[in-house]
Specification:
Elements (H helix, E strand, L loop, with lengths): L2 H13 L5 H12 L7 H16 L6 H28 L11 H8 L6 H4 L3 H13 L3 H8 L1 H13 L1 E6 L5 E11 L6 E9 L8 E5 L6 E8 L4 H14 L9 E7 L1 H9 L16 E6 L1 H8 L6 E5 L1 H20 L1
Antiparallel strand pairs: 1-2, 1-5, 2-3, 3-4, 6-7, 6-8
Helix pairs in contact: 2-7, 3-4
């Protein structure tokens, strides 16, 4: 494994709260092996089925169809063989991992068909799978590592099932899922829907967006509950205004004084930017209707170029954090 990939694995281990390198590797291999191109025979088989299915919609001779399928699959296999040959020659930093019993049983089974492509070299097969994993975008790697949790959520969305979740602080909620939505930059994925606290007798459901990896446990219930058109419309409208990250929380009127430089920064920095109330805003005093969390997340980095005017508690929070930073710098 090359240095960049070791760094990627280390960063993911930290982000996913996994301290043991072998445990991390085993989990990634288990969850990714059936999807990876490194599982050449299985990958080519899936590609053959997919292209054959697409060609069924085209009116052409069976012989021609088979030539197209055969040519495509042969090309894919050859490309992957060349990639494996390159990885075989590409010597890098050696790492020792302990393969767990579940993965060892798979590697020894008839289901695993890596021998033909890797010459009985299990280490090379594992190396290719892990290198392919490390080359994926962060969001895809997260979905692989937390595959079991994401699979439960996807199943609940498909079947309109209710989920019972446990948060890190021990609180339990019933979740009525709508869909999984990624943020604008595809760096985070959120489970969006409605929630109700399990211990509460209240029947009212609240909008919610949750990061799946942060859930302590997820239980797929047999109970079904299809969201109404009104509930879905309200969700979509709120997400369009707040963005998916800031779906939770009550909106407030936020007033911010921006300097000329602050206005330029507001115009340039689009990501997570709250929408300005054009009617209520003046040249330098901007008015927003958003959650205080979104206002803090967006405007705190502006420093002296943005001053919170309202609400008072948000203004004081900014002041406390800036004062603490000044004290920390003075002490050094």
């Amino acid at each position: 494994v090359v240095n960049e990939q070791i760094l990627t694995m280390s960063e993911d281990m930290f982000a996913f709260d996994e301290s043991k390198r072998s445990a991390f590797m085993n989990r990634v291999f288990k969850n990714f092996r059936s999807q990876a191109k490194a599982s050449v025979e299985l990958y080519c088989q899936k590609q053959e089925e997919e292209i054959r299915g697409r060609l069924e919609e085209i009116d052409c001779d069976d012989e021609i169809r088979e030539k197209i399928v055969g040519g495509y699959v042969t090309h894919e296999c050859q490309t992957l063989r060349e990639r494996i040959d390159w990885q075989t020659r590409n010597k890098a930093v050696g790492e020792i991992y302990r393969i767990n019993n579940e993965n060892l049983e798979y590697l020894r089974s008839a289901e695993c068909r890596g021998d033909e492509f890797y010459g009985h070299r299990v280490g090379l097969y594992l190396k290719c799978v892990m290198e392919e994993y490390c080359a994926l975008p962060y969001m895809e790697r997260e979905k692989i590592f937390f595959k079991e949790s994401y699979d439960k959520v996807k199943s609940a969305i498909r079947s309109h099932a209710v989920l019972k979740i446990c948060m890190a602080d021990g609180r339990r909620f019933y979740i009525y899922p709508y869909k999984l939505i990624e943020d604008m930059l595809s760096t985070r994925c959120y489970l969006v829907g409605y929630s109700k606290e399990a211990a509460s007798a209240a029947k009212e459901k609240k909008m919610v967006s949750l990061r799946v990896p942060r859930l302590k446990s997820i239980q797929l219930l047999e109970r079904r509950c299809r969201l109404t058109e009104r509930e879905i419309l309200d969700l979509e409208k709120t997400i369009a205004v707040r963005t998916v990250q800031f779906l939770v929380g009550e909106e407030e009127e936020i007033r911010v004084y921006l300097t000329d430089e602050g206005i330029r920064q507001y115009e340039r920095q689009m990501y997570l930017r709250p929408i300005k109330d054009l009617d209520a805003s003046t040249e330098h005093e901007y008015v927003f209707h958003c959650t205080p969390v979104q206002a803090e997340y967006y405007f705190f980095k502006f420093g002296a170029e943005a001053r919170i005017l309202k609400p008072e508690n948000l203004k004081k929070r900014f002041a406390r954090k800036y004062e603490a930073a000044v004290i920390a710098y003075r002490e050094t």
